[in-house]
Each structure stands twice: as C-alpha cells, then as structure tokens.
Amino acid sequence: MLTTESLRADFPALEGITYLNTAAESIPPRCVGEAIAQYTHDKGLGMRGRVPHFAAVEACREISAKLVGLKTEEVSFCSCSSEAYNLLAGALDLGPEDEVVVSDLDFPAGATPWLRAARPPRVKVWRARQGELRTEDLLPLLGAKTRLVQVSLVSFYNGFRIDWPALRDAVRSLAPQAALSVDITQAFGRVELGCSDADILISSTHKWTLGIHGGCVIGVPEVGAERLTTKAGGWFHLTNAFEADRFEKAVTKPGAASFSVGMPNFVSLYALNASLRYLDGIGIDAISRHADPLVTRVHAGLVDLGLAPLAPLRPEFPTGIVSFIHPRSTEIHAALEREEIHVMHQAGRVRVAVHGYNTADEVARLLGVIGSCL
Fold it and tell me: What is the pTM of this model?
C-alpha cells in the first residue's frame, strides 16, 4: 500500500522504529504538520484568519461525513469523546426509571457519564465471554425501559469488533425507544465502518484517523436529530446567540450541530481535514486489505508462542488490535522498548495495534522479540 519511499516521505518520524501503538497515539503523516503550519499562518491574520478557519471546519466536516457514511450536515465536532458523551447524557436527560446498557469492553468515556448523572439511570452491563460480546447475552438486558445502548465498534481493550447488524437488529426489535450510540474511535480510519444507521457516532481524532488531540467527530443522522439535541449552554451551537431575545431563551441547532457548543478547536480540525483526506486518498478499504493480514499474523504468531489473545480472530469483522496478558508482560514490554518496538503496556496487558504504515517485517520483529522473552 505504501512503498518504502512513500513511507519515508510521508512518515519521517517512523524512521528507525517499529510503531505498533496507534490505538493509543497515531504517528501523523507529514501533511498534518503542514496543515498545522497553515493554521499558524492563518491565525497570524487575526480576525481575518477566521475566514480560512471556518473554511477548514467545513472541509473537515465534508470529509468526515464521507468517511462515516453520513450527510455533511449530520456531522459536527467537539473537543473529545468525554465531552461528547457528557453532552449526550444531557440530551437524553435520563432518570432513575430509565435503563442504560453498556459493555465491559467499552472505554470509560462512554461508560461512566450515566453513573455521574444528577438522577442516575439504572446501568446494565453487557459482559464479554472469552473476550467477545455475544448478542444472545445482550437480549435479556433490553426492554421497554431501555433508553440507551452504548457500545464500541472495536474495543480499545482487546480489539473485539461488534457484529453490528446483529446488535442493531436486537436493539431495534427489543428496545425500540433506545438510542443506539457507537464509539468508533478504534475503527475510524482503519476499517470500513458500516454503522451509519446508529443514532449517534462518536470518535476521537488522535488515533487511527492520524490526527491530533483536541477534536472529536460527532455524527447524528437527521432522522433522530430532535431527540439527540443537547441541552447545554454556550453560543456556537445556538441560532440566537446574539439576537435580541438571547437572555430570554436559547435556541439550539438540532442534532450533531448542538454538540459544538463553543468555538471550534481550529487547529485540530485543520489537522483532521488533512489526515482524513490523506487516508481517503489511499482508501480505507486498501488500508484494511494491507493491514488485516498483518493482524492475522500477529494473532497466529502469539498463539504459536503459547500466548492467548484476549479476543478471537474473526476475519469477517476486521480490527487493528490484538491484546494478550502475561505474567512477564513488564519484561516483554521492556525488551520491545529496547528494540524500538512500540506497543501499549498496562496492568499486565500488552496491546498491539497494526495500521497501514506497518509491514510484515515489523510483525516478524515483534514476534521474534516476544518469543525471546518466553
């Protein structure tokens, strides 16, 4: 997908290292640095700089919508996924009589706002078995009181990918009043999503999208925009922020636009616009075709070494993440670091993340060093 020459040209920071930690932090391509430099130039124009600033926001909205499968007007931005989920909690305004379903493979940002609500709803946990979330285990958790089902398309913890059609059909059938929310952070930019029929999609911008911190993509299909309109104060998301009646009422733009409560973080959107257009130029399908076989090699190689990946390998549901737990994980991680092989290590868990800029030789190096520690 990327030649040796284009890798060096587009990702100079990868020279001399094997970077397998994109699920935590990406290595942005050179064009992102150029976009940040452009932002700096435009910022130097003072108030006149707002013309290119807002043009960059709209360009980013356009490419973001294309890649998540929504209309441009159905996409907006906030600062991070934690902000997005807290705004979602405000939009839903749940109470003790309502029920929320989350999974134990979710990132805390999507799982905890319901525990901190002023009037906490009842939270039910869809628990994984053998590293996978099984639809049959979800069914008893759904019912007439379910108001939200929150999942991650790909789990940050072990790389398990949801069977989206099965999940969607179960929720729509058994919990017709529920909003279906999906965190696409660990999938967006790496694999084809196929979940544009969720009620809300949320993604950070500094992982597989190859962007930087300070951004979050929000997608809300217009069919459910009224229900998922935030109740937050602010100004950028209001239609009457500077009108004569602004101290009498606050009129909010519907749906995704209501999540942009303040001034956009322009620099992160300059960066995201550049990184998503870079990825789109390659093709998400091409990235998946290149990187998915490498994930298979990592999974098979760990099994050959006697290690047990935390999620089953299911080629029909591609993912970029493979994780395992081992009592000598600290030693394994230290050995990998000495060889400039970068992975995530946390509480005995080692997580390997494979993106389009990784190669078969890098996977072989990874497995060789891990094998030497066992």
Answer: 0.96
- Note whether 258 and 229 are within 8 A (CB): yes
Tokens 């993340």 belong to which residue?
353
Region of 314 on the Ramachandran plot (φ > 0 left; ψ -120 to 50 alpha; else beta):
beta
| Spans of all domains in the chain | 4-20+283-372, 33-280
Which amino acid is residue 366, in one-letter code? L
b/e per residue 169-203 (b: at least 16 CB within 10 A): ebbeebbeebbbbbbbbbbbbbbebebebbbbbbb
Q: What is the mean pLDDT of residues 254-261?
A: 98
Strand order in the sheet with 321-325: 321-325, 349-353, 344-346
Pairing of strands 146-152, 99-103: parallel
What does the pLDDT average to over 317-329?
Answer: 97
Distances (CA, A) of 130 to 103, 308, 312: 14, 10, 8
Question: How confident is residue 1, by pLDDT bands cut at 50, 70 and 90?
Answer: low
203 pairs with which residues across the strands? Answer: 217
33-280 to CATH, choices 3.30.230.10, 3.40.50.150, 3.40.640.10, 2.60.120.10: 3.40.640.10
